[in-house]
Amino acid sequence: MDYLRTLGSAAVSSLVQKSGLNLPFSLGPTVSSLDGLCTLYDATKRDDGSPVSVFEYDFSQRKNLEPLAKNALRKLRVTRHPDVLKYIDAVESDSTIFIMTERVRPLNAALSERAGKGAKEKEEWLIWGLHRISVALAFINEQCASTHGNIRFTSLFISPSGEWKLGGFEVLSNPTDAAAVLYTMGSILPDANTWSAPEVKKAGWSELKQGHCSAADAYALGLLINGVFNPSNHPPPTANPPHAPPTAASRGAIPAPIFPLVKNLLNPNSKSRYSPQRFLDAGMADAGFFSTNPIVRVCVGLDNFAIGSEAEKGSLLRHVKLNDSADSFPPEFAAHRVLPSLVRALEFGGASAATILPLVIKFGNAAPESDYPKLVVEPLVKLYASPDRGTRMALLDSLGDYVEKLDKKTVDKIFPHLQTGFSDTVAVIREATVKSIILLAPKFSDRVLNNDLLRHLARMQSDPEASIRTNTCILIGRLGPTLSYNTKKKVLVPAFTKALKDPFVHARVAGLMAFMASIDCFDAEDLATKVIPNVSPTLVDKEKLVREPAFKAMELFVEKLKTHASSMVHYQVFRNAGLTDPHTARDCSHRPERHVSSISTARGNTLRQFCSWGGWGPCWVGNVFPGSPTRGLGNAEHDGWYRA
């Protein structure tokens, strides 16, 4: 079947090329033939490759369809509404009209997919869809003073976000329009009699000019509601003359609160019939079937979020938070409707940002992996440039939830905006910026890690807030092993020494812990000439909290120096042994016997005696932090940051 669809679209494309038409799209596979009026194709827009849909009206063999095709194009082009199929472009020829719209699929396909869903989930989805169509019809009837005239399954479509869209504008007409086609050509529509109102069956389509423009659409809406809930009982008996009122037994799966209103929509007397607007108002009343629907409530709240009060925003966010599991909303609705709306809401910043961002991340995790960069990462990267502190703080607090999704290229884009947090006048922002670095560090470029970042951290060690100075020292200690060799030699000792001289006791403790955690970053000469001399004053610090780790640090450093010294060459022994270059015996630290065997027997005894006495043998190997307080740095049970 897919092969035949593709073959069909290829044939159409070939014919179009031969006709000389310049199409702004590339046709894909055929999706459906809509009641023989037109053919729906998946397509891609030529200029940017975005997915679109194309409706092809071919009236080369059926000239009576030409006015309907032209009316569909004319009305769709000028009717702009969120719940109406979005027009993009069109191409006309003598025998064909191509209308390009947003990417959609027929409602019938979505109804088939939902057939296996749970009763409650399916009912909520149907009510949500009927709400969108009721809104669109109310707009056409009241604001446009027109009659759609073609409400049926094949006139309804589903967008990528799962929202119902109204199309099928072939006979949409205003009674004052001289070019109106509904009143003279309505009967050309396939199965027109099935969906027509009683007054049309009795007196013809021209009768619609005499009544309110909503009358025919209201009746068709009632038939549609019955059809989506009771597909096996469509059309209902009341649709046939003498149009007896629906009985209680005919309710079927129609929700009880909706059924009385459906009966009003199907009233055979057009003057007493409910309009789509009245049906919509009843559903949106307090405790109405629309206003209590969770998806409808979220949609309405998101549409009005920018102008809503803080109380209204808070109520909506609490509702979304209670329903943020993957099963609470249709997946396509969560990914393409809720998620983008929440991201846009973040742009307004304010106190709501701390609540919104975790929801963005949760909904983003439920989105398809291929869509995550576009739906979540790209908007979040832009938000790092926001001047709103609430938004920036929320981004930093939630960084751990999305940092794994960021690649190095993305982090490079973030850092220029992130670094402004180091100089923010609000201490909370500065501290959160410092703490965020440890998560991003593995993805920093060498230039940022060994240059730009360290300049900021050097300044943060002089921050007026003691906790920021402390956590900056802890951060440098964590970053130490990842720095380049020259940077380690140049930066670590001065940075940790500065912390040891800090008046804040916990900053001094952090300096000691950082020295111990970075012991492998120092060679023996630096330990002996730089580290120990700078650490030794803390042995007599006035605070016991500092003295205790200071002694442990000194023990650790001295132990490493002893290990190194035991492996060093003893120059005097080699001179006695007659060796002019003691460096030729470097391997003696591991296997002294190999070198001893090459020395004369008389002098060899002296060398062996020294090796035994001096402990010149294999270096001590093991954990350099036995019982060290630095084990808390980076421990999984504790995040390692200082908290006042």
From TrEMBL:
InterPro entries: ARM-like, ARM-type_fold, CIK-Related_Protein, Kinase-like_dom_sf, Prot_kinase_dom. Gene3D superfamilies: Leucine-rich Repeat Variant (1.25.10.10), Phosphorylase Kinase, domain 1 (3.30.200.20), Transferase(Phosphotransferase) domain 1 (1.10.510.10). One of its GO terms (cellular component) is cytoplasm. One of its GO terms (molecular function) is ATP binding. This is ARM repeat-containing protein. One of its GO terms (biological process) is tRNA export from nucleus. The lineage of its organism: Eukaryota, Fungi, Dikarya, Basidiomycota, Agaricomycotina. Residues 1-290 form the Protein kinase domain.
